[in-house]
Specification:
Structural class: alpha/beta
Largest sheet: 6 strands, parallel
Order of helices and strands: HHHHHHHHHHHEHHEHEHEHEEH
Strand order of the largest sheet: 3-2-1-4-5-6
Shape: elongated
Distance between the termini: 69 Å
Length: 473
């Protein structure tokens, strides 16, 4: 068994571990082990690269640089993962994805300069490097802009006159430079190509509203994968080809699934400036003059304590308040009174796919109490109480009835079908999409205002005061 065959075998093992890891990520019960399996695969792939370094005087120096890079990257990744709050997890995902895209673009750029300086570049290699640089740069700068939007720095879409014309002109310029490079390699033009690609990534994400950032991050994640795969063809590395293809294909599929969950085409997400709507945020009345009906914690506790079925709908407000542990304690108190408790999870609740599942799993909520939208929607009709904690757009009936609404046609949770609706919310400010929620003015809806964690804690205290004998016992 020669060295090259052994290295390729290690790459194959790493690829298999990547696939197994991604497969296990599909379920909350196996997601933790899936992460570990994929991480082991990445470690094997990194070590397998070492024998491929050229045998020259710089070999030890190159080993040192790689060891330093691995050490710094591992340290930053570990500290980031340990210290990041669950509410900021989407931002971390955006940043890490951007770093991956930027790394892929830099690899392609360095390789282009190396081959171009020696005149040893062909059209096939040039095409792969140009593609990796373009897609990787867009992923890097676009992910940074997505991070800024998720962080609340630039939540609303930013538009300006002839925006699409400017973007189209930049894209045509990029294609023009790429076409010239395929004919005749030029290092200076390649640098300009790199810079325009970075600008194009920023301007592409700039007009997209914060509510669409989960879709954008998923799409940019697929871009990073494609850029990595292109790098694999450039430097003949099968691990990059397989790993990049896996990331690219899974990111694309996730993007399609999320767009389907919102009933919106990807073109609408990218070019629709969704979230530009400015809704009224008056203290208790909508633009039509309707009023909301407040409720106190003790009254809400009575409604739930004597219910047969309570469906909890978590949203980003629960994440912000870090209320998941209090919610689990409340569900435990209800269960002890004989009340059946279920959690309704919308595909795009939170700031990234699976955000609510991760939060609730962190609070040790049983997996069998978590239900996807298709599984739970018919249950709302028999629910005595639908408890909405910080969710907004995913329960907005305007998605069904208001053709003028930006979310019209988006599948939502049927919370308005429950016998009673309790909404936990800080204020009457609209949700992340900036759209007024008509559910708040429903005759069956009662608003429990305040911080979600404080409100749920009060509900727990009131439930514990009640006799553990309820209707469902």
């Amino acid at each position: 068994m020669n060295l090259e065959f052994f290295v390729q075998l290690l790459f194959l093992v790493a690829a298999v571990l990547f696939i197994l890891g991604m497969k296990r990520l599909s379920s909350p019960e196996t997601a933790r082990s899936g992460n570990i399996v994929a991480a082991i695969g990445m470690g094997i792939a990194l070590l397998a690269v070492l024998p491929l370094l050229p045998l020259d005087d710089n070999r030890l120096f190159n080993y040192g640089l790689m060891a330093l890079g691995i050490a710094i990257g591992s340290l930053v990744g570990a500290i980031g993962a340990l210290r990041v709050k669950m509410t900021a997890m989407p931002q971390m995902v955006a940043l890490f994805n951007g770093v991956g895209g930027g790394a892929a673009a830099l690899i392609a750029t360095v390789e282009f300069f190396r081959l171009a300086s020696g005149g040893d570049i062909n059209a096939g290699n040039a095409l792969a490097m140009l593609f990796a640089t373009l897609i990787g740069s867009i992923s890097f700068s676009g992910s940074i802009m997505a991070w800024a939007k998720l962080q609340g720095m630039v939540e609303r879409p930013i538009t300006y006159p002839m925006q699409q014309v400017v973007n189209a002109a930049l894209f045509l310029a990029v294609l023009g430079i790429a076409g010239y490079q395929l004919w005749q390699a030029n290092a200076m033009l390649f640098g300009i190509f790199f810079a325009i690609s970075l600008v194009f990534g920023v301007l592409t994400v700039l007009p997209i509203g914060g509510a669409d950032m989960p879709v954008v991050i998923s799409l940019l994640n697929s871009f990073t994968g494609l850029a990595v795969a292109a790098d694999g063809f450039t430097i003949s590395n099968i691990a990059l080809i397989i790993g990049g293809t896996l990331v690219g294909s899974s990111g694309t599929l996730l993007t399609i699934m999320m767009c389907k969950a919102m009933n919106r085409p990807i073109t609408n997400v990218l070019f629709g400036a969704f979230g530009k709507v400015t809704a009224s945020a008056g203290g208790g009345a909508s633009a039509e003059g309707k009023t909301v009906k407040p409720i106190q914690a003790d009254e809400a506790a009575i409604l739930m304590g004597y219910a047969q079925l309570v469906i909890i709908v978590p949203g980003y407000g629960m994440a912000v308040a870090q209320a998941q542990h209090a919610v689990r304690e409340m569900a435990d108190a209800l269960s002890k009174s004989g009340v059946e408790v279920k959690y309704a999870i919308h595909p795009v609740a939170g700031r990234m796919p699976g955000h609510m599942n991760v939060l609730l799993a962190e609070a040790n909520v049983p997996y069998d109490q978590l239900y996807e939208m298709e599984q739970i929607n018919n249950e709302f009709e028999r629910a005595d109480v639908a408890l909405i904690i910080g969710a907004n757009d995913v329960v907005n009936p305007a998605a069904r009835s208001d053709r003028s609404s930006p979310i019209y046609g988006m599948p939502i949770l049927n919370a308005d079908h429950a016998k009673n609706i309790i909404v936990l919310k800080r204020s009457m400010n609209p949700g992340f999409a900036g759209i007024e929620n008509e559910l708040f003015y429903n005759e069956k809806t009662r608003m429990l205002f305040g911080d979600a964690k404080d409100s749920v804690t009060k509900l727990v205290q009131e439930l514990k005061k009640m006799s553990p004998v309820g209707v469902g016992s």
